[in-house]
Automatic annotation (TrEMBL), chains A, B:
InterPro entries: 6-hairpin_glycosidase_sf, 6hp_glycosidase-like_sf, Bac_rhamnosid6H, Rhamnosid-like_N_bacteroidetes. Residues 1-21 are annotated as: Disordered. Residues 90-294 form the Alpha-rhamnosidase-like N-terminal domain. It comes from Hymenobacter telluris. It comes from the Bacteria. SUPFAM superfamilies: Six-hairpin glycosidases. Residues 1-14 have a biased composition (Polar residues). One of its GO terms (biological process) is carbohydrate metabolic process. This is Alpha-rhamnosidase. Residues 317-649 form the Alpha-L-rhamnosidase six-hairpin glycosidase domain.
Length: 747, 747
């Protein structure tokens, strides 16, 4: 395979607009090392096969690697929650019925043995012949340092997600040599990703890299260099023509100010140089930066600087273009922000933590459904966040983050239609929910106990005391997700239990927090008494969770969402939900203005990716500080990329109505734009939409869609029948693969 | 340090009696690699320090290494239960109050950072100065492949078991940079062993080895060699003067027959030889054998063979000698059997599994208290067996083995007086007991569910159906152990709960299983009805658990223990308890004869270590088979070593009455011997006993003892007052460090 895109153009920061698209969009989903392989002739006739493992184990192992790469000013800075490990010993098996004997190739990462029909084969065979007929192949692998994985490929046999795995086969023998019945063993279907060749070892996984040049370089006093890569980026810095002996320090900056602040920058690396002859050197860790301030000690010189850009080769399938150039730029910078934060997992921000945070990841999942539709990254992130039993803490220690984890799993099923992960994770969903339910207080509500972080949002003065309504709402939605997932795995008793809990809790939420005078849910109960503090959080979630009746919705819109007296939100994180709530209420024109003002505001400040926090009231370098540190803020945070989601779901108006887009709706809403066009990815192809006030053009590659729109005049569509729904509302049924062009008159 | 013992004599198999003692007994408890170190001058003024870790984590990791070394005829053969892993990320801390600033040396296995008073120091310092005053030092270590460990040593500061550790410090910061209160974090005291130097890395641990010569070598056809090492042994085989190119296969045998059976021997190794010049080669894995049958392919020649004996340098502190030479030999072979099976952990047998089995280990613990008093090996084994939460299976998948695990923990406290491990393990005791209690049936009894192995013993035709009385007895004792341990950790509610459960269960056991006509507990209930099958198991345990009244004891003795109609026990494993029960009933003379006949029987068959199973009715090579395989039986099984325990506890008569021998009793019982003498180790020194029918000589280095004996005449002891207890029974209070010589007349 060969790269067929033009990334030297795309990624050369010297090119005036760093937001040119196309390059990222067509990157094939293969890893760098696969490029080195040639496919042997025999493999052409072989079954598809992929490396497999115990579900979640590779994801946990890989996330440990990634999350322990954080450094703070050069010092190791690991997470503060529990990290789990893979099971070091795993049994893999599959049953076959073969028409003819078949030679299979067999690889494992770890020490292993192989059983054919329960009989141990000698040694650790790399090839074996499975005879014709019904047979069972077992492979048992031990690996303490890396994850036990296997790869088997024959003409029809191939390891894949249908193989069964267990960490305890319970296969003992009695004194006569008779084998136990293994009736107590739980088998799960194997986990896998895209390691589809024998040589593509999962333990050797690395993100892809490619060389990039600097946009500008300035010599500084003492032989140093200040390098600008033109926009926020990520990778290894490469020093060329390096010579001499001594230390060279690289101070990284998302801003020029940060790179120049040798005492205040968040990340740095000290390189020991000992090169009598001119040579090249790479930094040891990949880092986020736009600027790098390179300061060699006396005696060390260097000629020039470039970088190895490091990235996940995800495919950009979602598209959006419209008549507003600023909005197009917002979409592009959002997509780039999302791309930088889509790595081994969906991470929070590329500069500082690079940890997997559930609340951040939840938003990435939603944006992903409108940009990459990269389900493996959703699944990896979900497994990594959950870790293993027993539960000793909330996900990331944060109560709300536990709840987002539940909700994300159901969303994943709704968008992808794949219940494999639900089946694999359901026991861990149950145990995490048991943990939550056991932490309810005497009133059946969640309140922060010792070791619980009630986060909600970064906002000055936000109360976390008592029983916060926002947390109860998220628990309620989590219980609904549990009920839905219980049905997917045929746990009827569970489904009933969780649904009842959700119904009871929802009633309690409204009885406790709804304040009719204020037309809003209040923020919390303290000492058993509802406060009269109104915040946006619970109210906006209540809208898109569809927990409010029409009257309540209108009250909330007026008294909370559009009420400037209620404390403003200053993070793109919660602006995501605030604007989603307004979109759900049909306020697209208002939200469009808000997007242009808020995300446009960051662009006006020179943002080349979107930030962790943005308060338009702040000025200059005030924008760079957070956590009490001058450059504490991350200027490239996944949760800043929400316009991707809002524009795809609420302007192009595409969303699944049943799992995996078997049915879906398209409700275009121009929100004041002259035209817009774009595509939304689905499991089986894209849904493309183009809209003007006079014409709607829609084509879906999947399922059965419903186009809904309003028109002042009677609309028409060649060869299709539009249904009038009354009040100027119309519907058109969309068949798979067919393009519909509707002539209408927008209201 | 220098080896001061004479192991070349002891371990040279050419020496006629392989049972000469002395060598093993004085081996210092240091590891080979420490011999290479010189102690730097500054260390002379340094605090004691040892490498520390999260309790249980090193033990689990090390047991994974050991248990995955099993091979069956050269093929990898791992356990069938779940293997756990260490936590890859651990925070260690300690608070100090220093009179003067102190420079400390700091090492960690893994990537790490250091905080002093909550402030992150730059990089990963290996030295730092802690200022005078109150300070806290935190070290956070990440290690995926090996266990995170740390070693800190200054003048007064040193890592030890008082440091606190956690796998989730929950130290987050809010948007202002303020640190959380960590109130939800559980800290345990650190685990450690004897890695007392900075260079003694726990991950580098290896058992000790030393060269040994073969006893005899016979050339076989085709240039091969049949080597006899004179007795059962363990280690690496060393081929000398090896030359040529080709494979050389080593067939190991505990018996000559096994080594010669190239198709039937249980273990073998194939060595690839490619040596143009004569050279040496070691086998890759250490193995058990007495005989090795070495068969080089044509083109490969060798001159001679020796071995590297591999062993744990435990110190043999218990002693026993008596007027019966056969009994002395039994004791010696038992001690040697125990020594071979005391390795990284107490294992079952050295040939085959080399796994940690709870039922086997439980007996090793008891023998250990009368031989090595090596508490670290007890603790390591206990942690390794338990693994981690969640509980998904019984220990080793065996119901009875779960119960032995509980009972062993309380025993350890009783013998050692150290409640550290109880404190560290109590949460895992609770969760394992929860698992058991949740598996009781509607009648509150344990019965094998899917995946449960009801083992009891290797015995033909032994029923495992229904509710087996033996299992209920063990559960009852486990509940009593839980109650006792709950008190040790100040869990009063738990203590009460577990005691009540035990009381209720004991009543139920007698109501259900006691058959007055049979004068015995019956074996089981099937379909809710007690069977009339009487076996020895529950009855003998009921005796030394002290669950029977006097009348019942006498009934059981007659109708079960001394009744030849009740199926005989054919494993040394259960003979252990059978003979213990008889000793508890004062049947020492009978048990002495049984020991001589049963263990003496194995010696007569040529045993050089004691076996997994011994049925005196079998003949010749019948003794070698088990599990349907001709050489399936292990001829060196820890559970064969019980005479050590019986002779120490019921003949020398020494046992603790309160934790750690604070109080203890000595009840010598010659059982027909003319004389006996010996020593029993305790945490603080030995208790030595010498007895003849006319004189008792006792000296204890610990606590307060009570010597109890019967005498036909009025006994006397110079300088001490003997109390008459009536019926010819006497007692003498024993003070620490003083020798008592009692003149009496044995009954």
């Amino acid at each position: 395979m060969k790269e067929n895109n033009n990334h030297t153009v795309t990624n050369t920061p010297g090119t005036p607009s760093p937001f040119r698209r196309g390059g990222r969009g067509v990157r094939p989903l293969v890893w760098a090392f696969l490029l080195l392989l040639t496919i042997p002739a025999e493999a052409q006739q072989a079954a598809k096969a992929t490396w497999i493992w115990y579900p979640g184990d590779y994801e946990i192992w890989l996330s440990n690697q990634m999350q322990n790469r954080r450094t703070e000013r050069g010092t190791f800075f690991p997470p503060f929650w529990r990290l789990d490990s893979h099971y070091p010993l795993i049994d893999f098996h599959q049953d076959f019925e073969l028409k003819a004997p078949e030679e299979v190739e067999l690889r494992a990462e770890g020490q292993y043995n192989v059983k054919l029909d329960g009989k141990l084969l000698s040694g650790s065979p790399t090839r074996l012949t499975v005879p014709a007929g019904k047979h069972r192949l077992n492979i048992k692998v031990y690996n303490q340092a890396n994850v036990p994985t296997v790869f088997v490929r024959g003409k029809t046999i191939g390891t894949d997600g249908s193989w069964l795995v267990t960490y305890e086969d319970k296969e003992w023998i009695d004194a006569s040599g008779k084998v136990s019945d293994q009736s107590g063993t739980t088998w799960l279907t194997a986990g896998s990703w895209n390691f589809n060749e024998a040589q593509a070892l999962p333990s050797a996984f690395k993100l892809r890299t490619e060389p990039q040049r600097a946009a500008s370089v300035t010599r500084t006093a003492g032989g140093g260099l200040l390098v600008d890569f033109g926009r926020e980026t990520f990778g290894y810095v490469r020093l060329h023509g390096l010579q001499g002996k001594g230390q060279t320090t690289l101070y990284f900056g998302e801003s020029k100010e940060e790179a120049l602040s040798t005492e205040g920058c968040e990340t740095l690396e000290r390189l020991d140089v000992n090169q009598p002859q001119k040579g090249e050197k790479l930094t040891s860790l990949s880092k986020a930066f736009r600027f790098v301030n390179i300061q060699p000690e006396a005696g060390v010189t260097l000629d020039s600087v470039s970088m190895l850009y490091e990235y996940a080769p995800v495919v950009e399938r979602g598209r959006f273009r419209c008549s507003d150039d600023q909005l197009n730029k917002i979409w592009d910078v959002a997509a780039y922000t999302m791309h930088l934060n889509t790595r081994e997992f969906f991470i929070d921000g590329i500069k500082r933590d690079r940890w997997v945070w559930s609340g951040d990841a939840y938003q990435s999942y939603l944006m992903n459904y409108y940009l990459y539709f990269d389900t493996p990254t959703v699944n990896r992130t979900t497994f990594a966040l959950r870790g293993k039993d027993p539960v000793t803490s909330h996900v990331n220690t944060i109560m709300d983050y536990t709840f987002y984890w539940f909700i994300g799993i159901y969303d994943a099923y709704q968008y992808t239609g794949d219940k494999t992960v639900v089946t694999q994770l359901y026991p861990r969903m149950q145990s995490l929910m048991d943990y939550c339910l056991a932490r309810r207080n005497k009133d059946g509500l969640m309140e922060g106990l010792a070791g619980d972080w009630v986060f909600i949002d970064w906002a000055d003065g936000l109360s976390k005391k008592g029983e916060v309504s926002f947390e109860q709402l998220l628990l309620c939605r989590s219980l609904e997700s549990m009920a839905l997932c219980a049905n997917l795995v045929n746990d009827q008793a569970g489904a009933q239990k969780y649904q009842q809990l959700a119904t009871d809790l929802k009633a309690k939420i409204f009885a406790t927090y709804w304040n009719q005078n204020k037309g809003a849910l209040v923020h919390s109960c303290v000492n058993g008494q509802p406060t009269d503090n109104v915040t946006r959080y619970a109210n906006m979630f209540a809208i898109f969770f569809d927990y409010l009746n029409n009257e309540q919705e209108q009250q909330v819109k007026k008294s909370v969402l559009l009420n400037p007296q209620v404390a403003k939100i200053t993070t793109p994180y919660m602006r995501f939900y605030e604007l989603e709530a307004l979109c759900a209420l049909g306020e697209q024109p208002y939200v469009l203005k808000e997007m242009k003002s808020y995300w446009g505001g960051m662009l006006n400040e020179g943002a080349t990716s979107f930030w962790e926090e943005y308060d338009p009231a702040k000025k200059g370098t005030e924008h760079l500080s957070m956590y009490g540190r001058p450059f504490g803020k991350s200027l490239c945070h996944a949760w800043g990329a929400s316009p991707i989601y809002l524009l795809g779901k609420y302007y192009l108006g595409v969303k699944p109505l049943s799992a995996g887009y078997a049915t879906y709706e398209v409700v275009p809403n121009l929100g004041g734009l002259q035209w817009m066009e774009g595509a939304v990815p689905t499991p089986q192809g894209d849904i493309s939409v183009r809209a003007t006030p006079k014409q709607l053009k829609v084509k879906g590659a999947v399922g059965t869609g419903t186009l809904r729109f309003a028109s002042k005049t009677k609309p028409s569509c060649k060869g299709a029948k539009i249904q009038a729904k009354g009040n100027g509302q119309y519907e058109l049924q969309l068949e798979k693969g067919r393009e519909y062009v509707v002539t209408y008159q927008a209201v």
